[in-house]
Amino acid sequence: MFIAYAIRYDYGALLPSMVVDLSLTELKLGGAIFTSYFIAYMVFSPIMGGLTDRFTAKPIVVMGCALMGLGSLMLSFSKSLLEACMWYGLAGVGAAGTWTPVSAATQRWFSRERRGLALGFMIVGICTGFGVTSLVTPYILDAYSWRTCWLILGVISLLVALIVLLAFQENPNIYLSGKGHVKKLYLDVDAWLVGVSYMLVGFAILVPFTYLPMYSIKEVGAGSWISIWLISLIAVGGVAGALTLPALSDRVSDRRRVIVLSNGLVVVSSLIALLKTVEAVMASAVIFGLAYGAIWPLYGSCASEYFGEENAGKVVGFWTLFLGIGSIASPIASGALADATGTIASPLALASMVAALSLLPLTAIKRVKALKST
Question: How far apart are CA 54 and CA 311, in angstroms?
Answer without folding.
Answer: 10
